[in-house]
Amino acid sequence: MCRAALFLLLLAAPAFAHDILRSDAKIQVQGHQARAAFTLNLFELTSPIVPGNPRATPAQLDGSIQNIFASLRQHYYLRAPTAPVTTTLAQYVLIDGNVVHMEVTYDFPDAITALEVESHLDQIMPPGHRHFLAVSINGTVQQAILDSGTTTARFTGIAIPKWRTALRFIRLGIEHIFTGYDHLAFLLGLLVATASIRSLVTIVTSFTIAHSITLALATFQLVALPSRLTESLIAVSIGYIAAENLLDFRLMKRYYITFFFGLIHGFGFSNVLRDMDLPRASLALSLFSFNLGVEIGQITFVLLIFPLVQDLIKSGWTRLKPAVSGVIGALAIWWFVQRAFLS
């Protein structure tokens, strides 16, 4: 029973979780000025513009933009090495009622040769928030990911070693899997209906090959799908796997359908890299490292959960597959409604 309770606890985690929470900033340094283009999702603000409703009208944003800007200034700092003389909200625009793009200029007393960025946006965003940052300085584009554990990044315009780039994107891939609860739910739906390690290897390999293909195509901007469509289809894929498990049917061999859904999940993985303004010179390395991190995360999850699943089945818990699949199916329905109609 202790093992069953542990498994149910693992299963329940996605029900109380959310997709990865993020904001973005692209900073262009030129002379004495740093121009930052921020993207913030109003869904994630702890104090929404319209209480109880994350969506807003342009008029409502006009009435609240100064408060948002003031909060940004209180939780986001640029130094070069001194503080800016003036910080100005140059322009802003509302997209789809829930995303605000803000352009902010920071004017410094001297020409900028190095820039330090400090973010505490996690204090005004839900737990788990991460800030994706790209800075162009001295003709070099560098990236950083800031969160509650890493609040500061420094940019000098000197290219960082390739091994540091690789490690950063491996970490990002691992984190994306373990905070991407929809992907974990999809894998869990496969695990509870797989009887042998050989079948599991075939299915996971099929999924890996497929998502690697579309991750590369999307990252290199050869193929693109709207984010809302991709995320909605990911929810559909989870619901389909849950339905197969519950109704005990197969339209085709599972590794075929897993390959097809893996193509869709690859577009979902690419959303993390798409808006990071990655330099072409390191794009291949960043893509490979991120994909490696995704695979490390997936393999770790499978190695942890599959033995537990097999142990519970052998112990006589015959309701494992329908119980797990029912919860996953319910989550898939909610995610689909949320992504297709509410975001």
Using only C-alpha atoms, the radius of gyration works out to: 22 Å
Helix content: 40-55%
**Strand segment count:** 9
Please state how the strands of the largest beta sheet are arranged side by side. 4-5-2-1-7-8
Order of helices and strands: HEEHEEEEEEEHHHHHHH
What is the number of independent domains?
Answer: 2
Q: What gap, in angstroms, lies between the N and C termini?
A: 39 Å
- The parts where pLDDT drops under 50 for at least 5 residues are 4-20
Helix count, DSSP H or I runs of 4 or more residues: 9
Assembly state? single chain
**Average predicted local confidence, pLDDT:** 87
Strand content is: 15-25%
Largest sheet: 6 strands, mixed
Global morphology: globular
Class derived from helix and strand content? alpha+beta
